[in-house]
Automatic annotation (TrEMBL):
It comes from Actinomadura decatromicini. The keyword Transferase applies. One of its GO terms (molecular function) is protein-N-terminal-alanine acetyltransferase activity. InterPro entries: Acyl_CoA_acyltransferase, GNAT_dom, Ribosomal_N-acetyltransferase. It holds the Pfam family Acetyltransf_3. The keyword Transferase applies. Residues 6-169 form the N-acetyltransferase domain. GO terms for cellular component: cytoplasm. This is GNAT family N-acetyltransferase.
Amino acid sequence: MVDDHVRLRPVAEEDLPFVEALRTDPDLCGPFLWEGWRDPHRFRRRWQDDGWLGDDSALLIVARGADALGMVSYRRVELTGPVWCWSIGALLAPEARGQGLGSRAQRLLVDYLFHHTLAHRIQAETDVDNIAEQRALERIGFTREGVVRACSFLGGRYHDKVVYSILRTEVPPS
């Protein structure tokens, strides 16, 4: 999948050190995603299991040319009865932030999921203090739905998250 110079691709074995560093180094993942010291090899084990392309969750590399810039992910969230949706997330390397690349990558992911799955809803949750992510989601058509209070624990305190969503019917055909 390509958008301008940004594309999404499956995780390759040579990407694993990048993925591990981006998710486990507090200076790289930033204040909204660092969960403390955990097993960094869990990413390699998951890749060996299914290449990070499972039926209920997946991870893709955000790339420009041969350079890995970050990653996007999605996971299935059960709603009511037979209804489910995808929850998406993005994490870019510090040098790739602030250039609109995250918005482009997430829009590519939305297009991919609506073209290749039956989901009618895609949602994203982000820390209430992560204004850059909130703007990125709004820029690509997500609607702010509300705040879930004290639903994550990072840096020694509970954090509120803002929930955003976009429906299949809200995305113009490409």
